[in-house]
């Protein structure tokens, strides 16, 4: 008995140690960015590296807040990511339900949707740029919203399919026997049941839209610049402003962190709900 308890304690300690290593691996860059944002330039380039500055300075944050493009880029990111997420989740939920319940497109359509996620973004960026240039959509909200929605649509459909697959058909049949229409069934019965999964998928989609850089830097301009694009502008021919880039990266991460904390219970329950069938 004692030997078994010892093995259990050792196994628990081993798992805890592995999780701690993963936690440090992912948290170390974030901590380094946060500390770099309050270091003096001489401390940022010091060898050996200075972890904790003796005299923290907040000049990088003041410079960032005084940047005329900061508020515009932050609002652009919130607007573009929010609308693109809403469109993607609404259309994706309808498409996922149709594919799962009515087998729309047969077995080929889901696989074709999955293949779109395997195409490198750099392959389609040039055709999208040329098309947007010809129809005068460059540097517009519409272009970025449509692009982000198209990029994440396949992922959202595949995520939501697993949630709809768990719904018993008998529940829907009972609602239709009681006089509920197919549209009413979807909005009044199905959606409330899978709402944790939809919230989880929406949060993942928002994070992907918020962090997207390649299409944003290629298709945006002065009016639609997002936070990742703004952060990249702090690299110039004069060099790399590490403090300003660190401050910008940290500030741009706050909305996503706040949303993740707020919707954490939906994220955990939604992903758990969709993991088994």
Automatic annotation (TrEMBL):
Q: Name one GO biological process term.
A: transmembrane transport
- Which regions span the lipid bilayer? 12-35, 78-99, 111-135, 141-164, 185-210, 244-268
Q: Which InterPro entries match?
A: BP-dep_ABC_trans_perm (IPR050901), MetI-like (IPR000515), MetI-like_sf (IPR035906)
Q: Where in the cell is it found?
A: Cell membrane
Task: Answer yes or no on keyword Cell membrane.
Answer: yes
Assigned GO CC terms? plasma membrane
Domain ABC transmembrane type-1: residue ranges: 74-263
Q: Which UniProt keywords apply?
A: Cell membrane, Membrane, Transmembrane, Transmembrane helix, Transport
- Indicate whether Membrane appears among the record's keywords: yes
Q: Which Pfam families match?
A: BPD_transp_1
Q: Provide the topology term for how it sits in the membrane.
A: Multi-pass membrane protein
Which PROSITE patterns does the record match to this protein? ABC_TM1
Reading the lineage from the top rank, the first entry is Bacteria
* Family assignment from sequence similarity: Belongs to the binding-protein-dependent transport system permease family.
| Listed name of the protein | ABC transporter permease
Q: What is the lineage of its organism?
A: Bacteria, Bacillati, Bacillota, Bacilli, Bacillales
């Amino acid at each position: 008995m004692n030997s078994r308890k010892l093995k259990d304690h050792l196994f628990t300690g081993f798992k805890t140690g592995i999780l701690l290593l993963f936690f440090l691996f992912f948290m170390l860059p974030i901590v380094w960015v946060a500390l770099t944002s309050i270091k003096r330039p001489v401390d940022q380039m010091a060898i050996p590296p200075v972890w904790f500055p003796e005299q923290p300075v907040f000049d990088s944050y003041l410079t960032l807040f005084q940047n005329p493009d900061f508020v515009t880029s932050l609002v652009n990111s919130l607007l573009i990511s929010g609308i693109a997420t809403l469109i993607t989740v609404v259309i994706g939920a309808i498409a996922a339900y149709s594919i799962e319940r009515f087998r729309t497109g047969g077995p080929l359509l889901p696989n074709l949707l999955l293949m779109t996620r395997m195409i490198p973004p750099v392959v389609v960026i040039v055709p999208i740029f040329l098309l947007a240039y010809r129809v005068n959509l460059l540097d517009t909200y519409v272009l970025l919203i449509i692009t982000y929605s198209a990029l994440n649509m396949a992922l959202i459909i595949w995520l939501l399919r697993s949630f709809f697959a768990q719904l018993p058909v008998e529940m829907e049949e009972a609602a239709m026997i009681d006089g509920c229409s197919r549209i009413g069934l979807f909005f009044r019965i199905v959606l409330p049941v899978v709402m944790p999964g939809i919230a989880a998928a929406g949060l993942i989609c928002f994070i992907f839209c918020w962090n997207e850089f390649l299409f944003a830097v290629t298709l945006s301009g002065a009016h639609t610049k997002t936070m990742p694009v703004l952060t990249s502008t702090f690299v110039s021919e004069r060099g790399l402003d590490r403090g300003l880039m660190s401050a910008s990266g940290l500030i741009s991460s706050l909305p996503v962190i706040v949303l993740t904390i707020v919707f954490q219970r939906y994220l955990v329950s939604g992903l758990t709900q969709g993991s088994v069938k």
